Amino acid sequence: MARTRFQPDRGLTSRMVLVMFLLGLLYVAAVGGLIAAGLNLAWVIIIAGGFLLAQWFFSDKIALAAMGAREVSPDEAPELHAVIDRLCALADMPKPRVAIAPTDMPNAFATGRNPNKAVVCVTTGIMRKLDRTELEAVLAHELSHVAHRDVAVMTIASFLGVLAGLVARFGMYSGMGRGSRDNNAALVFAVVWLASIAVYVISFLLTRALSRYREFAADRAGAYLTGQPSALASALTKISGDMSAIPTRDLRRSQPAQAFFFAPAAVGRSLGNLLSTHPTTEQRLARLAQVSAELGKPML
């Protein structure tokens, strides 16, 4: 992670390395298998590589555009900038750009490929809902994502899932198109179809597992930086409780940024912990209670 005063998390670092290593092996094996089956993937890889570069360099702009957010200056949002200035000085890290999304959904997220290119975005809903101490706790959580560099890893890992679908689709159509000329077309189609399912499911589960753990790590690091785990617990309780009152239309519009939010913008019931981008509120509160005990500050 970047050298800051945020508490390092070796568990997070090891998981990020492991996930990227396993995803790399997975995609090398998948692409190698498809090429061995006689499929021409050159153009798909070139096009997908271009999309990956675009997402790597413009992920912050893409995320802000998806939320309808805009960057704000210290003159436009003096209190918000003041909180982030204080936290960055406390953490000894570069100040990210600051943005606000005009939505009643109370939430926040951080994105960007490194601490020098990061942006922290809050919604108008969260600024109305939380007091200054709670908002500071949430922003410390988001800044820890930047310091840990897990935002960049999640950006790459999430894109690889999209790449899996693209490669699998291309392979499937290529296999189908050879039916009249190749007696093995049906076999190729079956192999490609099964490989696509395996690649997508494995990458999906790996990124979900990393996403859940990084929320625990950010909660802990943010709480240690501010010394106020109870404020983060209070903010989490308020935000999670308010999600049911947010219009479904707004929740669905925010789904592309779901994995990066402070709290999940859930639509409908979860299909289970394996499919969720975040730990449950109860799990996060329990971990924060442990941090509170370690700091000798009882949860209020």
UniProtKB/TrEMBL annotation:
Which Enzyme Commission number(s) are on file for it? Answer: 3.4.24.-
Q: Kindly give the InterPro entries that the UniProt entry links to this protein.
A: HtpX_protease (IPR050083), Pept_M48_protease_HtpX (IPR022919), Peptidase_M48 (IPR001915)
What does the note under cofactor report?
Binds 1 zinc ion per subunit.
Cellular component GO terms, alphabetically? plasma membrane
**What's the name of its gene?**
htpX
Q: Which residues form the signal peptide?
A: none
Annotated TM spans: 12-35, 41-58, 151-173, 185-206
The compartments listed are:
Cell membrane
Q: Does the keyword Metal-binding apply?
A: yes
Q: Name the PANTHER family for this protein.
A: PROTEASE HTPX, PROTEASE HTPX HOMOLOG
Q: Does the keyword Metal-binding apply?
A: yes
* Positions of Zn(2+) binding: 141, 145, 215
Name recorded for this polypeptide = Protease HtpX homolog
The cross-references to NCBIfam families, in alphabetical order and at most eight, read: PRK02391.1
